[in-house]
Amino acid sequence: MRFAVLGPLSVRAADGTAVPVPGERCRAVLAVLLWHANRPVPVSVLTEAVWHGAPPDSAASNLQTYVSRLRRLLPAVSLTHAYGAYRLTVPDDELDLSVYAARVEAGRAALAAGDAAAAAAGLRAALGLWRDRPLVDVDVPLLEPDADALEDDRLAVVEDCMEAELAGGRHADLVGELQALVGKHPLRERLRGQLLRALAASGRTAEALEAYARARDELADALGTEPGPQLRELHTRILRGEIVAAPAPRPTLTPASVCQLPAQVPDFTGRRDELAALTALLSAATDTVPVAVVTGTPGGGKTALAVRAAHSVRAHYPDGQLFTHLAGGSGRPRDPADILAELLRALGVAGPSLPDGLAERAAAYRSLLAGRRVLVVLDDATDAAQVRPLLPGTPGSAVLVTGRRQLPGLSGHAHPVRLGPLGAAEARAMLAAAVGADRLAAEPEATDRILAACGRLPLALRVAGARLADRPDWAVETLADRLDDEQRRLDELAVDDVEVRASLSLSYAGLAAPVRRGLRLLALLDPVTVADWSIAALLGGADPTAEHGEASEADTDRVVGALLAANLLDPVGRDRAGQPRYRLHDLLRTYGRERARTEDPVEARRAAIRRLFHRAATLTVLADEGVPRQEPVPRLPDDPPAPTATGPLVHRIRRDPRAFLDAERANLIAAAIHVAGQGRTGQAAWFAGHLHPQLWLDGRTEDLIRLHTAIRDAAGATGDEPARLRTEYLLGRVLTRRGEHDAALRAVTRCEHEAERLGLTHLFACCLATRGHLLRSTATDADDSLGYARRAVELFAELGDRAAATAAQRELALALNRAGRSDEAFAVLEQAVAGARELADPALQALVLNGYGVWSMGAGRYAQAREAGLECLAALRRLDDRVGGLQAQCQIGLADLALGHHDEAVRRFASARADALAYGDAEIAAFGTVVVATSWIADGRPDESVPVLERCVRTFRELSQPRRVAQGLRVLAAAYDALDRAADAERARAEAAGLDGYDGTGAPRTLSTRLLLRLAAGNTTD
Question: Are the beta carbons of 965 and 985 closer than 8 angstroms?
């Protein structure tokens, strides 16, 4: 990886792609660790850096969270903890701060040894790493003194570099640069002395004396002092004529030094990291010929960046800068012999002296450049074979290559720089340069749409900007609307002789026919990332119109490799399942779909999508077999049998099914919705049923709602009642998890009646079990839930679904317990525990343990309930069931309250609240908030608890949770009492009594409410 702190904080992967580090505080932690790389950084230092002297109580756990996030983002580096300190281990060559220090040390050593050329090259290379003030975009006051000191040292390095350049005889070349430096730093007398020497040694004695007089006046005005002794002595030497014009440097190429560089793009924007990398490479002192190769997506601004970099390092190549176009993207690449003839003529070789043949011209070219410092820019190269004859043979010169394709044949020499889309801020700045920032600011939403349609590619943005600039009468929204239409987008991205389609067409035309087909088929997908198996399915086997089959591994590798080499497919790293993933740029996808409509029959396109869905369904069903579940997913009579498959991918899926499903989640959801939209709603609903358990475990309620809603609506439109009811039921389950019990009960009740009418017995039993659960959770009288739960147990048993019957037994036991029939509940729980153990299903065991804990709380066995909760939580964490763990945390927290462990309970509920917010469980989030706010009452902070409790009561009302509303009102009444708001307290209690009633002693019925009131009073015993 590559880390940079000499400017904005930057992290890049080995392939050059940016690694975003989200979160201000997480960035601050990384900044401090990088600044002290390879050294231990005490936790106290990191805490001070992140919270600036005012850390919250949760600082230690928050810091651990930030460190864990960094470990996930940076798997290639070591971030360890020992003895109260963290250490980030980074190789010296991967951190610009370390590289800078090494180059400065080497440059200063060379200067001390009298090697002026090596010193100048090394110090220039070090200074080229600076992009701005260190960590300019990270707020870490703790590092400000160090950053200031480093900036001061940077000025000293600049002065050392000037000293080395002067020692090398470059007096005249340095005058302008020294004048600019003196203007920025007028109090640096060493810089002023260097300027005087440069002027005098260039034969400009009068200007040198004027510069001294100006220095004397400015120093007197600023400091009230005369120039120092060294500057005065230098002035005396100039007056005596002791500093005269230096001998002219040795002749450069004849007839004169050449500069063939094109003009820079005036609105060049962004690419700071890439530009810094190129200038550092091309400025570095080295005993080889540095070769930089800039590649990337068509329209990515390769030539503009290369020209910018070449201009920025012109001073390092005083013997000339050559530029030639190799026409690699034209389909008719230029012959290297012809290019060499052009370069030799530019270097002064007359027509009769021009050698014949490639080898002779290459030899003459290398001879002319030997011992010289020339920069050679080769634009739009085809391949390594075209470039190799154009490389100089001796150190001193350098080569900068651009190309549409990667040049692996130069891997031993080349330093690759790959360009992707611009960052969001850079893309906006480029568009603003053409259109005007005010015009964009007036229509921010339309501007965002244009940036998205252009894929943040410089060529597309430049065309879009030109179109808006040419049409001041247009609103920004006008162009945004035109670009929204994908089928005409490329028509709109054209102005005069510049068009995005032409740029893409050149790259497309250079591909072999099978690779072009692969690009077209990939373009049929939505903007998602894909793994090799998806590409193989799209390509198909021997019969490209068949609905099953896939390309061989070798054929798939050839297509993927060719697209990667042509920079038409972006690698986006490995996913959780270890699969390399790829993505088409949005404009390439648009172009690919355009070509597919022209070149591929409709049926061939449809067959490719069907192959992909069939393969996705096969792998998903296999993966689903290994996903733990705590509730049954409805089965329908027409469900197909489980598919079979073999191969390395199947083996990996069986080894870690959840990793595969997590990695492919977005694609699988999109596939199910797409198939439903094509009218195959039964297949889609069956497929969604196999996706449901993983999404449920991960708490992805929004994904579940989007998936099931789309299929339900499509099934309703086609009249597919079984598919509609299955997805309607699963939606009801999701609504239950979100705490929207009224909506869930309505959905499940509708499904129950229809499933019974249609004879969908398994679905009917699922509806009964869920309806019983909902009635137990929302009704003040649990008797209604008993019948539903009991009937569900019977039906599942008749159907032979033992796991579902065991889960339903747990629900029956809780309903019995709620009805006050504790002994019967315990007997049913024992049956459920035995069934779960016999099935050896850890998820089912965790579910039953949860029920056992609830029963234990009701029986007053609080320590037993806590142990059951801890065992259940451990099992759920082993299963990575983050959402199910919320219920277990609440159970443990209630047991802690009952045992008088109030502080521990509050911490437990605060943690559960944070997790619930992350997973979208509104009920548990609100209940956790109630517990935390209740603790404030006993702490003497009832004024803070009241508004929080009032919000929670409103949330429970919205979720149709009367028991939770009553709990919140009773605690709220306690807070009102503490504030002497007697009337408010009485109203709250009266409403609560109407919702949950009282037992014979006048205490609230529910144990959890009694525990909350004890917490509010600060009592640890009844």
Answer: no
Q: Is the dihedral of CA 677, 678, 682, 685 positive or negative?
A: negative
Which amino acid is present at 174?
L
DSSP 508-575: HHTS-HHHHHHHHHHHTS-S--B-HHHHHHHH-SS-TT-SS----HHHHHHHHHHHHHTT-SEEEEE-
First to last CA, the chain: 59
Run of H or E residues at 710 = helix 701-718
The DSSP line for 482-507 is HHH-GGGHHHHSEETTEEHHHHHHHH
Ramachandran angles phi, psi of 498, nearest 5°: -110, 120
Mean of per-residue pLDDT scores for the chain: 86
Whole-angstrom Cα distance, residue 123 to residue 377?
A: 24
Return the residue matching tokens 């193989």: 536
Which runs of consecutive H residues, i.e. helices, occur in 53-170?
Answer: 59-73, 96-112, 116-127, 144-167
The pair of structure tokens assigned to 83 is 């003895």
CB 611 within 8 A of CB 671: no
Q: Cβ(265)–Cβ(461) under 8 Å?
A: no
Phi, psi (degrees; rounded to nearest 5) at 418:
-100, 130
Minimal CA–CA distance to 184: which of 192, 174, 173, 194? Answer: 192
| Neighbour count for residue 39 (Cβ, 10 Å) | 11
* Assigned token pair, 874: 């451990």
pLDDT at 927 > cutoff 80: yes
| CB neighbour list of residue 438: distance below 8 Å, 6 or more residues apart | none
Residue at token pair 């960094």: 70
- Where does the pLDDT of residue 411 fall: very low under 50, low under 70, confident under 90, or very high at 90 and above? low
Is there a contact between 729 and 767 (Cβ–Cβ < 8 Å)? yes
Q: Find all residues with CB under 8 Å of 380, minimum gap 6, and list them.
A: 303, 325, 326, 327, 328, 329, 330, 402, 403, 404
**Distance between CA atoms of 211 and 45, rounded to whole angstroms?**
47
Element (DSSP H or E) covering residue 399? strand 398-403
767 closest CA partner among 778, 752, 756:
752
CA 284 to CA 568: how far, in whole Å? Answer: 32
Per DSSP, the residues of 314-345 read GGG-TTEEEEEE--GGGSSPPPHHHHHHHHHH
Asked if the peptide bond before residue 255 counts as cis, ω within 30 degrees of 0, the response is: yes
For 543-594, what is each residue's pLDDT tens digit? 766 767 788 889 999 999 999 888 888 888 888 888 899 988 888 889 999 9
Residue 776 pLDDT grade (very low, low, confident, very high; cuts 50, 70, 90) = confident
pLDDT digits (tens, 9 = 90+) for 443-455: 999 999 999 999 8
Asked if 430 and 461 touch (Cβ cutoff 8 Å), the reply is yes
Q: How far is CA 543 from CA 339, 381, 524, 611, in A?
A: 46, 37, 19, 11
Question: Reduced to 3 states, what is the DSSP secondary structure of residue 645?
Answer: coil
C-alpha distances in Å from residue 757, one per residue of 728, 730, 760: 16, 19, 8
* Contacting residues for 708 by C-beta, under 8 A, at least 6 apart: 688, 692, 727, 728, 730, 731, 734
Say how many C-beta atoms besides its own lie within 10 A of residue 255's C-beta.
8
Is residue 152 exposed (0-12), middle (13-18) or buried (19+ Cβ within 10 Å)?
exposed
For residues 387 and 372, what is the distance between their CA atoms, to the nearest angstrom? 20
pLDDT of 610 over the 60 cut: yes
462-494 b/e with 16+ CB inside 10 Å = b? bbbbbbbeeeeeeebeebbebbbeeeebbebbe
Residue 768's contacts (CB-CB under 8 Å, 6 or more residues apart) are: 752, 788, 789, 791, 792, 795
Helix (H, G, I), strand (E, B) or coil at 80: strand
Length of the chain: 1022
The CA–CA distances, whole Å, from 374 to 181, 204, 250, 619, 801 equal 26, 28, 15, 57, 79
Residue type at 387 in one-letter notation: V
Q: So what's the pLDDT on residue 55?
A: 87
